[in-house]
Sequence to fold (188 residues):
Amino acid sequence: MSNSHLFLKSGFPRAPLQNGLGRYVCQLQRITLKFCKNNGSSRGMRDFIENHLVDFAKENPGIVVYVKPRRHRTPVLVGEYLNGEREWLSCRNSTQDEISKWIDLLKTQNGSSSSLRLRKMWHTDVPSIQGPWTPFMLRSPDALSQKYPSSEASKPLDAPTTATEKLIELFKQQKLEDEADISKKHAK
Fold:
């Protein structure tokens, strides 16, 4: 078992700003492309900047794009999100297509998915006062003490009458009352 989770922040999954209930708000606030002008491992980053960066900036006006040349360093993508989190990705020896896919991934994330150890896989803003539901919640307490296989447990439960069956019963009662009224009228 790994102990790598000990150094991660702990929390609950949560949609930031209730994203998706109203209009969609892109959580990526700014992206920084760091690269070397001469290093061979930055070739894909340089190609992306020359060919696709202007189109990306036009398509996403809500994301601020910074380009930062650095000497003798490996290319890096840094995404900063509205919640203050930063996502750092190394793009060493990546092609321009791979870099565009990494940027799309940063654009669609909310910034807290990979750097957070989830305590639960679900979260609600309004927790239940009654506690969590279990399959044994509405069972009879007698079922807990039974030994299985049991002939009593295998019997079908008395199903409540359906609305259709109740209507048929009411119709039959009404028909009997009408016949009784008719026989009283004829008896007079």
Notes: The chain has a mean pLDDT of 83. Strands lie at 9-11, 28-35, 64-69, 76-81, 86-90, 116-118. The radius of gyration is 33 Å.
